[in-house]
Amino acid sequence: MMYSLEAGGKRLRPILVLSAAEAVGRNARAREIAMPIACAIEMIHTYSLIHDDLPAMDNDDYRRGKLTNHKVFGEAMAILAGDGLLTHAFHAITRASALGASPETALAIVADLAKLAGAQGMVGGQAADMLGEQGVTSLEELEYIHLHKTSDLLVFSVIAGARIGGATQRQLDALLVFARKLGLAFQIQDDILDLVGDAAKLGKPVQSDVTGQKVTYPFLIGMEKSEALVVRLTQEAKQALDDARLAMPDTMHAIADYLMSRDH
Amino acid sequence: MMYSLEAGGKRLRPILVLSAAEAVGRNARAREIAMPIACAIEMIHTYSLIHDDLPAMDNDDYRRGKLTNHKVFGEAMAILAGDGLLTHAFHAITRASALGASPETALAIVADLAKLAGAQGMVGGQAADMLGEQGVTSLEELEYIHLHKTSDLLVFSVIAGARIGGATQRQLDALLVFARKLGLAFQIQDDILDLVGDAAKLGKPVQSDVTGQKVTYPFLIGMEKSEALVVRLTQEAKQALDDARLAMPDTMHAIADYLMSRDH
């Protein structure tokens, strides 16, 4: 569990939790209270990578420039490490309550995570991705996969942080649109970087999607339209962010800009 | 997810949740409110069986008389089905709150489950079991494995039900002792049945532990002492149950008697 948690990565999801909590601006201790939630979502993200890398799934040997979990500890331990991280994420959320979140808020965050990381969310996206590899994937199917495999955890991060920060329902609604579009842009950018990126910066071989015959946005609509779509989705995400009328939106805007222009 | 949930089994853990909730006798709607918790623990139990049966773990072809999940849907889907069930269990717990459990009680149950099913609980027991198969296992190590692989989910079931039923801290303490001893007796009985049981009743081949070179109580201390230990642990469990001074303890006593005398 610690090997994969400590393997690094962008820590995008925890940063979104903490940034959203602060951006709302209605709780002076928002960042402190949101910290266990930030840890929880990184545990969920990390467990999903460990299981995704398994031989029965994507069969990857490297992740973040290090050997994948099962390459070091074996398949059985990798499965259990993923199970342990997934389970412990829910324990971390209960700790936000001990730090000052109301039991109602903590329980709403538990329900959000169970839905967005589960069979109707991330796990559902993973399952659709697995099934998609067995045949032709349409653009609609690919969008479904990206929305659930990637956007759902970003949605959770932003909404959970905003809940801790004291957001209104109208703000939560706008932030949901922001996170969904940001997640889709993020995943299409991932598809693009896998084709043209620098293996050293990515920490994994490029064109792994091509050799694995994975259907991607560039494969379906071409590189030029994919790049244009990333720009458009990011603009729409930033518009939704403006609609949320947060007290301190600058960090959230900066994150959206960074994700669009990143090279790894 | 549904294939394995609907494969049957004793439903021991959900029965313990509902029985404990009713036995305390301080909440007329205890059974109704406890129902989503009963479903949650069966989802956890079922996910653990799906992952435990995988080729990288115990590599079992049959479970409850049916083909194991990965034999029907493949390894990738079996891993995801387990992940989905584990995640959805936490969603089920939040539903107890909608039915009338206080947010504090629901959150305490989330924390219990995350601890008892996680790396310090069931997953930790599974990991110790995997490591144990690579070398000699002592009686202390075997007790650790049994307490965490099996007792921890029974402890969760009894404690969660009792929380919904309105148990005092003193009652929870006594029920913890009851469930730990019951779980250990249950697992030793499992070891015994694997050696001498009827394959048709068990729904899986007997002596699978022997062919898999698994260290068991009968292997370490002999059949006679193992059988005596099941009787003693069950008596101690029932004593702890008396100590809990439940309003309606009869069903709980009957469950303890049944588990000791079962043949599958």
Task: Provide structural commentary.
2 copies of one chain form a homodimer. Chain A has one domain: Farnesyl Diphosphate Synthase (Orthogonal Bundle). In chain A, 75% of the residues lie in helices and 2% in strands. Chain A has 14 helices and 2 strands; from the N terminus they run H-H-H-E-E-H-H-H-H-H-H-H-H-H-H-H. The first copy, chain A, has helices at residues 2-5, 12-24, 30-53, 69-73, 75-99, 103-116, 122-132, 139-165, 169-196, 199-202, 208-211, 217-221, 223-243, 250-261, and strands at 62-63, 66-67. Chains A and B meet through helix 5, helix 6 and helix 7 of A and helix 5, helix 6 and helix 7 of B. Chains A, B: Its cofactor is Mg(2+). Chains A, B: InterPro entries: Isoprenoid_synthase_dom_sf, Polyprenyl_synt, Polyprenyl_synt_CS, Prenyl_diphosphate_synthase.
Task: Outline the fold blueprint.
2 copies of one chain form a homodimer.
Chain A: H1 2-5, H2 12-24, H3 30-53, E1 62-63, E2 66-67, H4 69-73, H5 75-99, H6 103-116, H7 122-132, H8 139-165, H9 169-196, H10 199-202, H11 208-211, H12 217-221, H13 223-243, H14 250-261
Antiparallel strand pairs in A: 1-2
Helix pairs in contact in A: 2-3, 2-8, 2-14, 3-5, 3-8, 5-6, 6-8, 7-8, 8-9, 9-13, 13-14
EC number (chains A, B): 2.5.1.10
Enzyme class (chains A, B): transferase
Keywords (chains A, B): Isoprene biosynthesis, Magnesium, Metal-binding, Transferase
Task: Please provide a brief summary of the model.
The first copy, chain A, has 264 residues and is an all-alpha fold.
